Amino acid sequence: MSRTASRTDVLADLVQGGPSRHRSAVLGFELHLAALRDPALRALTHEWTKASRAVLARFTGPETAARLDALLEGMIMHTLLSPRPEPREAIRAAIEQSLGPADGSGA
Fold first, then answer.
1. Which end of the chain, N or C, is less packed with Cβ atoms under 10 Å?
2. In a 10 Å sphere around its CB, with 0-12 CB exposed, 13-18 middle and 19+ buried, how is residue 103 labelled?
3. Which helix (H) or strand (E) holds 104?
């Protein structure tokens, strides 16, 4: 398995989550929504996003990390809300497109 495929599979697992991941994902989205209403919470959500992107950037670079973070959050929300989750191959394809070329040059 290539490094990109391994990374893609780990991120697809994150999107698909499961019962153990469901509660933390819902709480995260509730915090983001609360921050829209309460400016005092915005610093917390900003730091959370910054930390998430920093972890992703270790494997992708900062520009790709920002794009990937937004994609993953959206895909996780859609997975939580959908009665029929997106097929794994569609999730993988979206992640791979966001990651860019496998040679590490980024897109």
1. N
2. exposed
3. none
Distance of alpha carbon 58 from alpha carbon 22, whole angstroms? 25
- Residues 10-25 have pLDDT tens digits of 999 999 986 668 888 8
Residue ranges in the chain modelled with pLDDT below 70: 1-5, 18-20, 102-107
Residue 62 CA to residue 49 CA, distance in Å, equals 12
Three-state secondary structure string covering 9-28:
HHHHHHHHCCHHHHHHHHHH
Find tokens 């917390």 and name the residue: 44
Q: How far apart are CA 105 and CA 78, in angstroms?
A: 29
Residue entry with tokens 């829209």 = 36
Q: In 17-38, which positions are buried (b, 16+ CB within 10 angstroms) versus exposed (e)? A: beeebeeebeebeeebeebeee
Start-to-end CA distance of the chain, whole Å, equals 22
